[in-house]
């Protein structure tokens, strides 16, 4: 499995290039790098890059690649990096233009490299667009070393059947500590006082602060980060209240947070900190209406996601004094173009530093690497963004059941000769009580596998089934017929038709138990090349003809299972060593016949 990590260039403060870097050429005409044409100098801006800037040029170009293809490489081809370092000065490129040019180079290289990758690991600056996903023909997983996946086109990944994973716990402590620091800075106006000192002032009276002891902190979102913030601020003597639609009041009480409805929170809190994902329900959670219900002078912290706090409403509340101060690490647009909020004297702002600690970056990198290794080796699946229910599908115990569900879907599609309508998946037996969440998409993937859809996986099967006109539902019953009460059964039906299949797992082998009401006394294995046919129970000529065809083709008969008789006919499932090239001689002797090749 080949895995690539990358970063789209983002301009940082220029730094010295260091020893060993080639000097810049200040004479002669700058030629375009191989295969590219550059805009003329007059179109490129006015700031001329100096030799000291070349370290940043190289840092923008660098990207690490690992996997089966060997050692580290550059995202921008080395000859292009060399050309940039030799000619940027005479081109008088501005940083903005240089960034755009490097982005073009990195984008072209990303598209090229991603074609051979099974996995892609990125941090926040790399944009995994629909175009990148489309170019990556082998891609199975995108790993985000961090929490947010704003830089990944999750919808396009899902449609392509690519898993998107993140490391939701990797930066929790760093984000929580930054939030706590922001609360302290708001209470004592530390950044403003420090800036005043640097200006040569001594304004002791101007920066009168407040104690946190006895103040009420509202924590909106009580997941990993929210609870870490709450417990830390309790050490300062703060009373913590909060709200979370998922965490129960009993659970939040264990870490000292009293849960209240939002309408009761607004008038009670001195400080508000938000720790929710950015969803339609949380966008603009703090707005003109909610600010009006708060205590005058309430302090607001947002180190979660830009957009949770309505920035226009926040600015109006600051200007009116309804909000006494705000600390923001995130913005709706990053970097923010409208500077009114950032420039307000009662606003403390940072350039999205929540995860910017050495510890968090190292932790996230290690976690996402191990998550992908675990996925590739079949040990498990964690941190999935676009298919949380599939996490259990990658355990060794559940894999045979996923294979069975796919096989049943493929078999039912072949027997029913349709992929439209209503499909019901029923799990039977207590052992499969939680299995519907991952077996249902597996059945849908099997139903679609023989159609025109390509790359149908557990990730995109449900979406593609809906688009194909197939409505998939699931049910469960704790009762399974003997002798399968302990292991379980999976039953799949096309509603409104007589077509139904049922199967189980024997050891680690998927097996067919029933088809259209006909039961196999000994379940038939569903793997490898198979011939499935229905014929009159009193006519044995079909089996004799099949045996002759196998002999002529040099194909071995590995297994043969026949069902009970229904309306004078029975089903037969024949396992082969290889597919038969032609079933023409068999068709006159059977009611229906088809050939499958299952995993």
Automatic annotation (TrEMBL):
<feature type="compositionally biased region" description="Polar residues">
    <location>
        <begin position="1"/>
        <end position="15"/>
    </location>
</feature>
<dbReference type="GO" id="GO:0006566">
    <property type="term" value="P:threonine metabolic process"/>
</dbReference>
<dbReference type="Pfam" id="PF00389">
    <property type="entry name" value="2-Hacid_dh"/>
</dbReference>
<dbReference type="GO" id="GO:0010468">
    <property type="term" value="P:regulation of gene expression"/>
</dbReference>
<dbReference type="InterPro" id="IPR006236">
    <property type="entry name" value="PGDH"/>
</dbReference>
<dbReference type="GO" id="GO:0031175">
    <property type="term" value="P:neuron projection development"/>
</dbReference>
<dbReference type="GO" id="GO:0009448">
    <property type="term" value="P:gamma-aminobutyric acid metabolic process"/>
</dbReference>
<dbReference type="GO" id="GO:0006564">
    <property type="term" value="P:L-serine biosynthetic process"/>
</dbReference>
<dbReference type="InterPro" id="IPR029752">
    <property type="entry name" value="D-isomer_DH_CS1"/>
</dbReference>
<dbReference type="InterPro" id="IPR029009">
    <property type="entry name" value="ASB_dom_sf"/>
</dbReference>
<dbReference type="InterPro" id="IPR045626">
    <property type="entry name" value="PGDH_ASB_dom"/>
</dbReference>
<dbReference type="GO" id="GO:0021510">
    <property type="term" value="P:spinal cord development"/>
</dbReference>
<feature type="domain" description="D-3-phosphoglycerate dehydrogenase ASB">
    <location>
        <begin position="399"/>
        <end position="508"/>
    </location>
</feature>
<dbReference type="InterPro" id="IPR036291">
    <property type="entry name" value="NAD(P)-bd_dom_sf"/>
</dbReference>
<dbReference type="GO" id="GO:0051287">
    <property type="term" value="F:NAD binding"/>
</dbReference>
<comment type="subunit">
    <text>Homotetramer.</text>
</comment>
<keyword id="KW-0718">Serine biosynthesis</keyword>
<keyword id="KW-0597">Phosphoprotein</keyword>
<keyword id="KW-0520">NAD</keyword>
<dbReference type="GO" id="GO:0021782">
    <property type="term" value="P:glial cell development"/>
</dbReference>
<feature type="domain" description="D-isomer specific 2-hydroxyacid dehydrogenase NAD-binding">
    <location>
        <begin position="181"/>
        <end position="354"/>
    </location>
</feature>
<keyword id="KW-0560">Oxidoreductase</keyword>
<comment type="similarity">
    <text>Belongs to the D-isomer specific 2-hydroxyacid dehydrogenase family.</text>
</comment>
<keyword id="KW-0028">Amino-acid biosynthesis</keyword>
<dbReference type="Pfam" id="PF02826">
    <property type="entry name" value="2-Hacid_dh_C"/>
</dbReference>
<comment type="pathway">
    <text>Amino-acid biosynthesis; L-serine biosynthesis; L-serine from 3-phospho-D-glycerate: step 1/3.</text>
</comment>
<feature type="region of interest" description="Disordered">
    <location>
        <begin position="1"/>
        <end position="30"/>
    </location>
</feature>
<dbReference type="GO" id="GO:0070314">
    <property type="term" value="P:G1 to G0 transition"/>
</dbReference>
<dbReference type="GO" id="GO:0004617">
    <property type="term" value="F:phosphoglycerate dehydrogenase activity"/>
</dbReference>
<dbReference type="Pfam" id="PF19304">
    <property type="entry name" value="PGDH_inter"/>
</dbReference>
<dbReference type="InterPro" id="IPR029753">
    <property type="entry name" value="D-isomer_DH_CS"/>
</dbReference>
<dbReference type="InterPro" id="IPR006140">
    <property type="entry name" value="D-isomer_DH_NAD-bd"/>
</dbReference>
<dbReference type="GO" id="GO:0006544">
    <property type="term" value="P:glycine metabolic process"/>
</dbReference>
<keyword id="KW-0007">Acetylation</keyword>
<dbReference type="GO" id="GO:0021915">
    <property type="term" value="P:neural tube development"/>
</dbReference>
<protein>
    <recommendedName>
        <fullName>D-3-phosphoglycerate dehydrogenase</fullName>
        <ecNumber>1.1.1.95</ecNumber>
    </recommendedName>
</protein>
<dbReference type="GO" id="GO:0019530">
    <property type="term" value="P:taurine metabolic process"/>
</dbReference>
<feature type="domain" description="D-isomer specific 2-hydroxyacid dehydrogenase catalytic">
    <location>
        <begin position="112"/>
        <end position="386"/>
    </location>
</feature>
<dbReference type="GO" id="GO:0006541">
    <property type="term" value="P:glutamine metabolic process"/>
</dbReference>
<dbReference type="InterPro" id="IPR006139">
    <property type="entry name" value="D-isomer_2_OHA_DH_cat_dom"/>
</dbReference>
């Amino acid at each position: 499995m080949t895995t690539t990590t990358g970063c789209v260039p983002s301009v940082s403060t220029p730094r010295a290039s260091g020893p060993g870097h080639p000097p810049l050429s200040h004479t002669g005409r700058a030629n375009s790098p191989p295969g590219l044409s550059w805009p003329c100098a007059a179109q490129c801006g006015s700031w001329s890059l100096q030799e000291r800037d070349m370290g940043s040029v190289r840092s923008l170009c660098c990207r690490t690649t690992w996997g089966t293809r060997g050692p580290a490489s550059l995202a921008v081809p080395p000859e292009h990096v060399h050309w940039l370092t030799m000619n940027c000065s005479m081109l008088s490129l501005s940083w903005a233009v240089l960034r755009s040019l490097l982005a073009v180079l990195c984008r072209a290289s990303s598209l090229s490299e991603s074609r051979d990758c099974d996995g892609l690991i990125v941090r926040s600056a790399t944009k995994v667009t629909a175009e990148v996903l489309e170019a990556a023909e082998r891609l199975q997983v995108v790993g985000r070393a961090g929490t947010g996946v704003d830089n990944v086109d999750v919808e396009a990944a899902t449609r392509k059947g690519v898993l998107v994973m993140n490391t939701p716990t990797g930066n929790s402590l760093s984000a929580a500590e930054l939030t706590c620091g922001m609360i302290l800075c708001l209470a004592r106006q530390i950044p403003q006082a420090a800036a005043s000192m640097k200006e040569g002032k001594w304004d002791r009276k101007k920066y009168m602060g407040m104690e946190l002891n006895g103040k009420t902190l509202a924590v909106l979102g009580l997941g990993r980060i929210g609870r870490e913030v709450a417990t830390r601020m309790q050490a300062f003597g703060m009373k913590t209240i909060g709200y979370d639609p998922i965490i129960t009041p009993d659970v939040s009480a264990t870490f000292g947070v009293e849960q209240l409805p939002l309408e009761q929170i607004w008038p009670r809190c001195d400080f508000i900190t938000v720790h929710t994902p950015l969803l339609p329900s949380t966008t603009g959670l703090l707005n003109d209406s909610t600010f009006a219900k708060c205590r005058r002078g309430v302090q607001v912290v947002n180190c979660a996601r830009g957009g949770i706090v309505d920035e226009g409403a926040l600015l109006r509340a600051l200007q009116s004094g309804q909000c006494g101060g705000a600390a923001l690490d995130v913005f709706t647009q990053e970097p923010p173009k409208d500077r009114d909020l950032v420039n307000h004297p009662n606003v403390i702002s940072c350039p999205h530093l929540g995860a910017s600690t050495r510890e968090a970056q190292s932790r996230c990198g290690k976690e996402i690497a191990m998550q992908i290794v675990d996925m590739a080796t079949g040990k498990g699946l964690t941190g999935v963004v676009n298919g949380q229910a599939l996490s259990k599908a990658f355990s060794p115990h559940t894999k045979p059941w996923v294979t069975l569900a796919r096989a049943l879907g493929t078999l039912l599609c072949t027997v029913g000769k349709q992929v439209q309508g209503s499909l019901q998946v029923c799990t039977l037996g207590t052992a499969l009580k939680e299995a519907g969440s991952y077996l249902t998409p597996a059945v849908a993937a099997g139903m679609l596998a023989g159609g025109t859809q390509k790359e149908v996986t557990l990730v995109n099967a449900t979406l593609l089934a809906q688009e194909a006109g197939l409505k998939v539902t699931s049910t469960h019953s704790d009762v399974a017929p003997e002798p399968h009460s302990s292991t379980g059964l999976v039953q799949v039906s096309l509603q409104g038709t007589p077509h139904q299949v049922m199967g189980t797992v024997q050891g680690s082998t998927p097996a067919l138990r029933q088809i259209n009401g006909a039961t196999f006394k000994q379940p038939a294995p569903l793997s490898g090349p198979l011939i499935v046919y229905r014929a009159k129970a009193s006519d044995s000529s079909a089996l004799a003809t099949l045996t002759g065809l196998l002999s002529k083709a040099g194909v071995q008969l590995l297994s043969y299972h026949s069902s009970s008789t229904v309306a004078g006919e029975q089903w037969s499932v024949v396992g082969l060593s290889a597919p038969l090239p032609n079933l023409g001689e068999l068709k006159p002797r059977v009611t229906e016949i088809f050939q499958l090749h299952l995993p």
